[in-house]
Write a structure and sequence with these properties.
One of its GO terms (biological process) is peptidoglycan turnover. InterPro entries: 3D_dom, LysM, LysM_dom_sf, Resuscitation_pf_RpfB, RlpA-like_sf. This protein has 239 residues and is α+β, with helices and mostly antiparallel strands. It folds into three domains: 57 residues, no CATH class; 54 residues, LysM domain (Membrane-bound Lytic Murein Transglycosylase D, Chain A, Roll), CATH 3.10.350; 112 residues, RlpA-like domain (Barwin-like endoglucanases), CATH 2.40.40.10. It contains eight helices and eight strands; from the N terminus they run αααβααβααβββββαβ. The strands form two sheets. Strands 3-7-4-6-5-8 form a six-stranded mixed barrel. Strand 5 and strand 6 form a beta hairpin. It starts with a helix and ends with a strand. About 29% of the residues have low confidence.
Length: 239
């Protein structure tokens, strides 16, 4: 009778909504063997393994609350995750976020090893651009402000370039990001924008020749940057 009662209590403990941690389930070896015989070899171990897996899943991500001045590019960069995956985890169609929004950010070490930012050579191509962003480059219907600017292009390997922007973005390690250089007196650094022919981007860099209504768009491929040339484009300030 005592063994039957013990088994009943153990089962309640294992299936309780609180998912009691496995190390709290202590009992004598002889009693454990009796339970295995009653429930079947591996049954108890399987339940405990499932509990541990459940608890591990809970700790594999954090919930980040967007603060004033945040932007999606900076959040992705600060947490060492690709922008397109951050957007995918949170079902975002573009890079617009607002203070108070909550974002899921995966923190699992295996994930970080798998998706560690990679360095590239100068002939990188458009395949590095985030798929989600590339699919949502349609012109936004609303904007805080709209300008017509002269746009040129640059790479992370231009003469005298360090590869790190004025806003702290390492373009050599994150070639998939869409970044433009601006005159901060016209478009403040950190501003989310949409650029005709380029898509959603962040005002994340400056340049000695970028004054007034001029911008420089970052393109990872040297050949494609040269093909861009000099254009008059429409730019929308999104926040």
């Amino acid at each position: 009778m005592r063994k039957n009662f013990f088994c009943f209590v153990l089962l309640l403990t294992l299936f309780a909504p609180s998912f009691t941690y496995a190390k709290e389930l202590t009992f004598e070896k002889s009693e454990f063997n009796g339970i295995k015989g009653l429930l079947g070899n591996g049954f108890v171990e399987d339940i405990i393994t499932r509990q541990l897996s459940f608890q591990q899943d809970e700790s594999d991500y954090i919930v980040y609350t967007v603060k004033e001045g945040d932007n999606l590019f900076r959040i992705a960069y600060n947490h060492s995750v690709p922008l397109d995956l951050l957007m995918e985890w949170n079902n975002l169609e573009n890079t617009l976020i607002h203070p108070g929004n909550q974002l899921i950010i995966k923190t699992d070490e295996q994930f970080k090893k798998q998706y560690k930012p990679i360095s590239i050579v100068a002939d990188a191509t458009q395949e590095f651009l985030p798929k989600t962003v590339a699919q949502t480059n349609s012109e936004p219907s609303t904007a805080e402000k709209e300008l017509t600017v002269t746009a040129t292009a640059y790479t992370a390997y231009c003469k005298g370039c360090s590869g790190t922007t004025a806003y702290g973005i390492n373009l050599r390690e994150n070639p998939h990001l869409k970044v433009i250089a601006v005159d901060p007196s016209i478009i403040p650094l950190g501003t989310n924008v949409w650029v005709e022919g380029y898509g959603y981007a962040i005002a994340g860099d400056t340049g000695g020749a970028i004054k007034g209504n001029k911008i420089d768009v970052f393109i990872p491929s040297y050949d494609e940057a040269m093909q861009w040339g000099v254009k008059k484009v429409k730019i929308k300030i999104l926040d």
